[in-house]
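Q: I'm building a small set of examples for a reading group on sequence design. Run inverse folding on the following structure and report the sequence directly after it, with nothing in between.
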């Protein structure tokens, strides 16, 4: 799995992690955000590497399912790009206001 794929799963976990079990979201965070190996996660959680992998894979599939149905991450990225285009064509005052809107979008 390349860095872009890992970043995508991490982003999806930010959007939809609260829809997973706390355990799934936590293991996904450890694996994708904290870049821990399956062995390290297994040691921390006192489980086998296979159990960690199974939980991460099931959670990852659910995250992708949520995004395929809701499209929140794609919509957010699209809004972000449009705001950046507007910022480039506006005066400084308007650009600062758009920057505030961009921060709000990032927090969603």
């Amino acid at each position: 799995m390349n860095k872009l794929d890992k970043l995508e799963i991490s982003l999806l976990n930010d959007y939809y992690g609260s829809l997973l079990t706390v355990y799934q979201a936590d293991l996904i965070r450890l694996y994708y955000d904290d870049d821990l190996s399956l062995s390290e996660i297994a040691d921390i959680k006192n489980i086998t590497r296979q159990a960690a992998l199974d939980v991460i894979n099931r959670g990852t599939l659910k995250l992708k399912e949520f995004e395929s149905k809701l499209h929140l991450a794609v919509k957010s990225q699209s809004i972000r790009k449009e705001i950046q285009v507007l910022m480039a064509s506006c005066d400084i005052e308007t650009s600062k206001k758009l920057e505030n809107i961009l921060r709000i979008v990032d927090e969603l």
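Residues 73-107 form one domain.
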